[in-house]
Amino acid sequence: MKTNPLTSVIDRKTHTNPLSETRSENSKMRITATNLIRWSGLAALAAGILFIIIQTIHPADILSSVTTGRWAIVHYLSITMCLLGLLGIAGIYARQVEKAGWLGLAGYLLFSLFYALTMGFQFIEAFISPLLSTEAPKLVESLLALAGGSAGEMSLGVLPAIYSLVGVLYILGGPLFGIATFRAGILPRWAAALFASAGPVSALVIALLPHPLDRIAAVPLGLGLAWLGYALWSERRGNPI
């Protein structure tokens, strides 16, 4: 019996090889360095947006705020922001590591340490300060005073020095990393310039405006980080950003 050639062609098209389909699915799901770097861009995008939002909804740094739901939300978000920031900044650096040089490495290390130390302080404010607000109000008030750059009634040992170090890391790390990113020319230069401006802008704003008005200094860095993150996440290798 003769077979219909047209039927044979249709059968070959409709009955695909299950093994080839599995290989295709595995190739799409495969974890690669390129995919990890790309997804770290999404983390940077989220961290930049959260950094700006947190400044706009942060309650006053006073004892009565510590036990409120708003205080808890802000500091839970801050911990999340720091974690996402660590992932995002690592991906941005990895994308341009060959061109960022020693300047990029220095900026990356400084800014990563900024996020790590900030996460520790945010953890204290989120989980420890509310528990001590009734039993040790003077201690909590002294912790709150750190944000305004003043000393509380109780001695906090080395904590004020570490808190000051966080500010130094922010002011130095941002410009170094931003300049290295600008020079590398892989990610958008305007975003890198915005990121690099955060340190000098913060130093100027802190000198001119009292706390908490100085929180507006977070906007340039937040925008720059979000922009860099979006560019990294939306990048298609082989196509310039």
Structure characterization notes:
The chain has 241 residues and is an all-alpha fold. The protein has one domain. It is 76% helix and 0% strand. It has nine helices and no strands. The N and C termini lie far apart (60 Å).
Output the radius of gyration: 24 Å
Q: What is the average of the pLDDT values?
A: 86
How many DSSP E strands?
0
Low-confidence stretches: none
Structural class: mainly alpha
Say what oligomer this is: single chain
The largest pleated sheet is described as:
none
Count of discrete structural domains:
1
Listing every helix as H and every strand as E from the N terminus to the C terminus, the arrangement reads HHHHHHHHH
Q: Classify the beta-strand content into a percent band.
A: under 5%
Percent helix range: over 70%
Intertermini distance: 60 Å
**Dominant shape:** elongated
Task: Please tally the helical runs, counting DSSP H or I stretches of 4 or more residues.
Answer: 9
Summarize the structure.
By secondary structure, this protein is an all-alpha fold.
List key phrases describing it.
241 residues; mainly alpha; single chain; 76% helix
Secondary structure elements and pairings:
Elements: H1 5-14, H2 18-29, H3 33-57, H4 69-95, H5 97-132, H6 137-147, H7 159-184, H8 189-208, H9 218-234
Helix pairs in contact: 3-4, 3-9, 4-5, 4-9, 5-6, 5-7, 7-8, 8-9
